[in-house]
């Protein structure tokens, strides 16, 4: 066998092996439904400054964040006819009370029907850090829930928690999308450092239509998060973004930059709830040449599914 034939044979073998690995590594979900349970606007139920959504994906039910007030998510779920008692996994996007405030009351109420309700709590590394300017109420919440038998699972790296369902883990702050107050401090052995909400994580659903990103506040930055997804899960399109993205104070210049980046990821659907900002959502809609069927302000009761796309509450129109 000559050298050319040998090199060609080796290349064919490597390509074949790469294709086998690529096909094996990534699972895409076949069914997904996301229902908003807490945000400011409400077509039904009650609105608040907070965020929560129920994720139903390939037979799994996940509660993403728990709203602000103790009873909001419970009441809204009842009004929407949603049973949360069989939800055993809850994700906390970060430590702020407008995302964790309903956790204890939800757990106690749902445990009356299911002793394992909300028993697995998924969080990002850094959520339990000691904050200098506040008591970090999540520490008290953690202790109370652990006494009730709950388990906290901490993530730093991108992790597939169910087939095709990922948590981002810690997101590097490559671009200066700083969208937090800047006054908070974290206590470390070497002294105080800026509290940039290091635990911020998002949920990522891998579907045949592209990634669906679900965020609580997106304190790591929506573009930083998307680049992290395509670099560390796989380089697919991110077609849908749902939740809070903390663009409420973004300048027109920053929104224009964000829109250009979003377009490069293939984004074509967005439910901008909570801290995204109403004007920011409308500005992005215009910059992306989208419409009210594909980019809407989030409201309690709105839905997204792979089959039907966005079903917004009437107030979002």
UniProtKB/TrEMBL annotation:
This protein's UniProt keywords: Hydrolase
Domain of life of the native organism: Bacteria
Any one GO molecular function term: transferase activity
Cross-referenced Pfam families: Lactamase_B (PF00753)
Signal sequence, start to end: none
SUPFAM superfamilies hit by this protein: Metallo-hydrolase/oxidoreductase (SSF56281)
Domain Metallo-beta-lactamase: 51-113
UniProt xrefs under PANTHER family: METALLO-BETA-LACTAMASE SUPERFAMILY PROTEIN, METALLO-BETA-LACTAMASE SUPERFAMILY PROTEIN (AFU_ORTHOLOGUE AFUA_3G07630)
Name of the protein in question: MBL fold metallo-hydrolase
Species assigned in the record: Shewanella hanedai
């Amino acid at each position: 066998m000559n050298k050319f034939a040998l090199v060609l044979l080796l290349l064919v073998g490597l390509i074949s092996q790469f294709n086998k690995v690529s096909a094996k590594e990534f699972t895409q979900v076949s069914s997904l439904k996301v229902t908003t349970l807490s945000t400011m606007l409400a077509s039904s139920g009650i609105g608040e400054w907070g965020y929560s959504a129920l994720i139903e994906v390939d037979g799994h039910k996940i509660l993403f964040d728990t709203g602000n007030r103790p009873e909001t998510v419970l009441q809204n779920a009842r009004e929407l006819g949603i049973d949360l008692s069989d939800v055993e996994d809850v994700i906390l996007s970060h430590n702020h009370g407008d995302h964790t405030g309903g956790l204890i009351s939800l757990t106690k109420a749902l445990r009356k029907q299911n002793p394992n309700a909300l028993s697995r709590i998924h969080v990002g590394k850094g959520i339990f850090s000691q904050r200098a300017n506040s008591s970090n109420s999540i520490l008290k919440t953690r202790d109370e829930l652990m006494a009730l038998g709950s388990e906290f699972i901490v993530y730093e790296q991108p992790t597939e928690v169910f087939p095709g369902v990922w948590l981002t883990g810690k997101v590097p702050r490559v671009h200066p999308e700083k969208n937090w107050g800047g006054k908070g401090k974290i206590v470390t052995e070497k002294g105080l450092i800026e509290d940039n909400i290091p635990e911020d994580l998002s949920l990522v659903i891998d579907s045949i239509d592209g990634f669906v990103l679900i965020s609580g506040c997106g304190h790591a930055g929506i573009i930083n998060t998307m680049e992290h997804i395509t670099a560390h899960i796989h380089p697919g399109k991110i077609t849908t973004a749902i939740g809070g993205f903390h663009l409420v104070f973004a300048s027109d210049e920053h929104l224009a930059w964000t829109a250009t980046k979003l377009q490069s990821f293939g984004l074509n659907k967005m439910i901008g709830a909570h801290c995204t900002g109403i004007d920011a959502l409308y500005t992005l809609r215009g910059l992306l040449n989208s419409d009210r069927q594909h980019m809407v302000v989030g409201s309690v009761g709105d839905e997204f599914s792979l089959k039907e796309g966005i079903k917004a509450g009437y107030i979002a129109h």
